[in-house]
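Q: My labmate handed me this sequence with no annotations at all. I'd like to see what the chain might look like in three dimensions before we decide whether it's worth expressing. Could you predict it?
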Amino acid sequence: MKSKIIGIAEGILFAGNILLLFILLFESKLGIPQLLQPLGRMHPMMLHFPIALILLALMLEGLRFRPEFRNQPLFQSLTRYILLFSILTGLVTALMGLFLAQEEGYSGQMLDWHKWSGAGMVFLASLLYAFRNQKWYQGKAAIAGIGMVAITLVLAGHLGATLTHGESFILGPVLSSKTEQVPFEEAEVFEHLILPVLERKCNSCHNPTKAKGELDMSSMKALLKGGENGEIFVGGKPEESTLLERIHLPEENDDHMPPSGKPQLTEAEMALLEQWIKSNLEPETKIASLPTADPLREKAMEFLDTETAISFEFAAANPKTVQGLNNSYRSVVLLARDSPALDVTLFSPSNYTPASLEDLLAVKEQVVGLNLNKMPVTDQDIKTVVRLENLNRLNLNYTEITPNALQELTKLKQLRHLSLSGTKVDFASLQAGVKGFENLKTVVIWETPVTKAELENLKKEYPKISWVTGRADLDAEILQLNLPRLANPSNIFQDTLALKLGHPIREVEIRFTMDGTEPNRENSPEFVFGETVLKEGQLIKARAYKEGWTASEVATFNVYKNRFSPDTVMIMSKMSKVHPANGSKTFFDKELGTYNANSPAWANNWAGFRGNDMELLLEYGEKVEVSSVSMRVLVEPSNVIFPPQSIEIWGGDDPNTLRLIGKMKPSLPTKEGEPYIELVTCEFKTASAKYLKVIARPVEKIGAWSGRKGSAGMLLVDELFVN
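A: Here is what I predict for the chain of 723 residues:
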């Protein structure tokens, strides 16, 4: 019985080796069935067991040649069984790893090495098992075989750990502590500000040897190249950059980056990345060369200061004390995880009293940040503030302090950053008071009595301090208004829509058109709330005007009418795994996708189909009179995203006996170009139906004009409109 079981196990091992080799050689042409994907995702959980078991089996294998064990049948049999079982578990784990690697998003040289070393270990161990009873298999030959299996096992394990945690996971903390800090004057925007964030939070999965999603984030050149879906950011357009879209998703979302379980970006790091993209600067730009009021410079100074953070020598406050200080108008939180320092913010001016500050004396040693923005703080209250002996950052913007308060504040020997915007602090008090600060680095003086000439004097007298003011150059330039916006909750309506256009700046005049022409002040009507009611879908163009400002650019809005939303939508065909969107709810959820020049295919609201038709069955509770079906599609030929090559609409009262009521062949792109969104409409003679079947066929083969000729096109749809 035992020999029969062993025979079966050996047969499984032989067949498994052939299967493993076959998958390795032809994996680019294979597709793993969806049922096997959960098995592949168990690879990280399972791999630790065979590693330990194989090491044990190899140790026993080495011992079986010792004189005291050579003639013990029980030990010899046990060694054989453990070795066979351990190789089988290693084989299963290797197959799981190959299944996992077949999923989209896994690529890179490191992954290839990991696959081949893991498989190589299984092959070598299987050969060792096959020849272990040969006469020549003893002494040095046995030790060599055991050693080779052990080395490949360790190598595969090391490569797997590197794939999961990054190349510097083990020595990272030691190496990073030795990194030299670049002087502020020499710091470059990308190399010294942005790249360190990417190295800490992104490069473990996106590097030259492990490029998940074919995306390498280890250099500016690699970033600009993008990943499998194109570039990941658009300089100057944060709202169109999928890098920002991904990092701001909820952590439990599958598309959130970094993935759950990995070190997450802090709020400051996310704000820094957003401002970097918005600023659209050359990578080599020196941070010190930016104007003092530049938002990126402000964030950079704060960030670089964080990189060389002060080490706090005081003990942490009693957690119960900290908890007791928190209420609806005061927040007291840890500055960072495992830090004893506290950051305090006060809210609600109506609830403020001097006691709001006096209460903080219970943690006066631990408070390093204090935000009193817009609180009715007076000079008398400053006497309490200066008792917070380790205060590093103080925000007194729009408080009621006078110039006299500045002299009192010089008692704060650790103060580095001081915000005084909107206060009465003037040039004379700053000139006399600033010299009393020992460590001051930044002073913010927006909307103070300080003039432009006085500001220049302060900069010359105190060159080591960064003077931040947004009013210094306003007399030299006219600002442009930002775009007007569509203020309706949704731009999809059923019957009528009272158009609402808005602007974040007050008393702005908005001119608009609905005939496709560019709006202007002379010929276009002024928008007035309540006067424009739409009965059909429209293309709306709008521009904002205000005296003393440059007119905004033209904003374009599409407003859609959807007369009949179905009660039920059923997807009758297979969707793309990369673009599942919101499943069957996608097509009538009133959430529209967006496109951008770097990676429109990553927009979350697009449902994708490739290699098979999009087939939807729409069910209505009662008959509807239908004369058209439209779909909103994304078009970007360079990323093989095309409109459908044909559309069919079927209708009837029974889903099993539907008849063809309309069909069309949309025009297809014939050259590369910028991405755009197109509304494809299939019109037909009015038909009465309780069921509609919509069939849209993706492009089967892209034409010879394209660099991707012969490839199948991707169809991306975000919304359907009936009538």
